[in-house]
Design goal:
This protein is 47% helix and 0% strand. It is mostly helical.
Length: 182
Amino acid sequence: MKGFTREDQLFSLCGLNCGLCPMRLDGHCPGCGGGAGNQSCKIARCGLEHGAPAYCFQCGEFPCETYEGIDAFDSFITHCNRLADLEKARTGGLEAYHGEQAERREILEFFLARCNDGRRKTLFCLAANLLSLPALREVFKEAENAAGLPLKERGSHVSALLQAAAEREGVSLKLRRKPRNR
C-alpha cells in the first residue's frame, strides 16, 4: 500500500506474528509495510487514516468494528490470537512481548532445521504461534533429546508431542479456511 511502511516486520499492525509465518520464513512476504510485494490492506489504510500508529492498540478507537470476527479465519498464518496478542503487547509492554516472540522464533527455527522432513512446516508454525511458551519449551527439550533419531522419525515424534500439547491446551493445530462461496 502506497505510503505505508513499518519498522517492526515481525509483529504486524493488526497483531499477526509475521516472524512465525511460513510465507515470511520462505521470503515470499515482506510483511505489512515491508516494501515490494506489500499488498493493499484495509487495516493499514485505517491506520494511515488514524495517525499511523505502529500497532492498532495504540489507536484511541481500538478495538473498533474492523476487529469484529477478525480472528475467525486464517490465511498462511493463524489469526486466532491477534486480539489477545495485541492486548498482551499493550499490557505487558512491547519489549517483553518481543522477547517472548524471539524465543518462539528460536524454537520454531530449531523445529524447521532439525525436525522437518519437508511436510511439517505449517504444523510447526501453528504450534509456535498457538501453544503456550511452557508447552513449546517442553516439546523443544524432548526434540533435543530425540536428536539421534532419523529425520522422518524425529519429525513424527515432535509432531506427536506438539499434537499432544495442543490437546492438553485445547488448541487446534490446523489452519481455519474461510468457506468458499458457491
